[in-house]
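Pilot study result, target chain (180 residues):
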Amino acid sequence: MTNPASLRPARTADIPAMEALIRRSGIELSKGFYTAQQAQAVTRHVFGVDTQLVEDGTYFVVERDGLLLACGGWSKRATLYGGDRHKRGPDPLLDPATQPARIRAFFVDPSSPRQGLGRLLMEHCEREAKAAGFRTMELAATLPGVPLYRACGFAEVEPMSLALPDSVEVPLSRMRKQIG
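Predicted structure:
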């Protein structure tokens, strides 16, 4: 019998392992949704750990038998997506009464898709955001993530597109969910 997965807050010491997981996930789980060029560009230029989330205690890892299988979190800050290298300037706090919390940077190891790890993270993040006073959550979904977010009750609000170097365009979807 397989041991159950456990969820805990991410720590600074986890960053190298999370970055490696994000690279694997960004390339492998994008197959069938993005071209290889799109997956490589978004993984290289956008994906990555946002250390502000780790510092805020709103980014989490899922492990089984000491192996990191997934990471993701929620944010009380204005940035909608992207790791440290994608951010520009300060990341102001959101007003829970008038602005949606952000769901940020969900990645699952390609060896462990469709095992409920993303849903485990999402349910935890929703509880935490609701406890912090937020009534709505919002995210910028990659196409591979859209099915999970729909299954978790998010609705698509509008299509988005990222213009990346070498004329690479990567479609995303802004999604939202009421939680309170």
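One observation from the pilot: The two ends are 37 Å apart (CA to CA). A full batch analysis is planned for the follow-on phase.
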